[in-house]
What we know:
With 372 residues, this protein is of the alpha/beta class. The protein folds into 2 domains: 2-184 and 249-371, 3-Layer(aba) Sandwich (Rossmann fold), CATH 3.40.50; 191-245, Alpha-Beta Plaits (2-Layer Sandwich). The protein contains 14 helices and 16 strands. The strands form 5 sheets. It has an 8-stranded mixed sheet, with helices on both faces. The protein has a two-stranded antiparallel ribbon with strand order 5-6. Helix 1 packs parallel to helix 2 (60-72), helix 6 packs across helix 10 (250-265) and helix 10 packs across helix 14 (351-359).
Amino acid sequence: MAKVYFASARARKWRYEDSMPAKLERLLKEAGLMNYFSPDEWVAVKTHFGSEGAHRVVRPLFLRKVADALKRIGAKPFVTDTVRIKGLDYLEVANQNGINHLSVGVPVLLADGLYGKDSIMVTAGEILGKIAVASVIHDVPAMVVCSHVKGHINAGYAGAIKNLAMGGVSSSHRTCGWKCGRGAMHTIGEGELVWDPKKCELCYQCKDICPLDAITFKEDELTWDGNICWRCGRCERVCQSESLKLPGDDERFMRSLAEAAKAVISTFEPDKILYINFLTEIQPECDCMPMADVPVIQDLGILVSTDPVAIEQASIDLMLQSPPLPGSMATDKKIAAGDDIFKKLHNKPYMIQVQEAERLGLGKSAYELVEI
């Protein structure tokens, strides 16, 4: 049974030792970094840089604590993510969100290059076949996966598995393009975008949020380029007039997340990945959206484990025990205490990704929670 180390977000005394940064230091010490990482070993600290307007990412202070802990044992860490928008723009987004060399104390770089095409094809599974893992993540010998736990328009729940799958896979591939990259997870089982001009309010939020410029408007008519669209669903999510519909297969998508996560993990030797889930500022949307809504659950704390399935199950269990916050999207959806908040928010069978990850041998859902 895997151990999942937990530190509560509550600070009951007015001293540094009770702060979350200090608790993270103790969590990393308790987990025993020296058992997994070696002096002079390069270690990727994988996180999400966020978006312009999305500021509820893992805070640079916490990333620095991770980097500092790795440097103390002689390792050589760097902070990284994969391209979600144009590479130079994404690095600037990271900088705007406070993630830079000065703040985290180590280099900050893009794992799949400035153009999001630096990747290596890796066997994934029966759904995806092969998937393009970002070259830096593929080649680096060790990794710490720092995940901001939150909701997600497709995954329903986003934690370590989503961070591995959609964050460890390249934006694209030099030969087979986006269909071999992150888009492969989105497109599996997905259909054609349907637009109802009678309902459309011509607010253009769908056009503005598309990362691939697949939607254009000319003389109040929507044009959709299905050849470049990777069916991420952002356009449908932001359409408040409900004039856009993008059919999809939720079960296959969840299973593809687990397959992609397995592909990423397969590029590492055993016990060379440590997972940290930050249950803080738990908002309903992914950090890739151009905004950040108020949290739907109070800050709960930080979890650390070497088992991605166990840490996901522990994170979900803690949130299922937590009441929704008033004045949040949970209020809009009339979610009550005891409800499955993320299931009610997005109506996605998010547990399938965890169950499939366990079936694929990525870890075990049974865990021992060790609170410090």
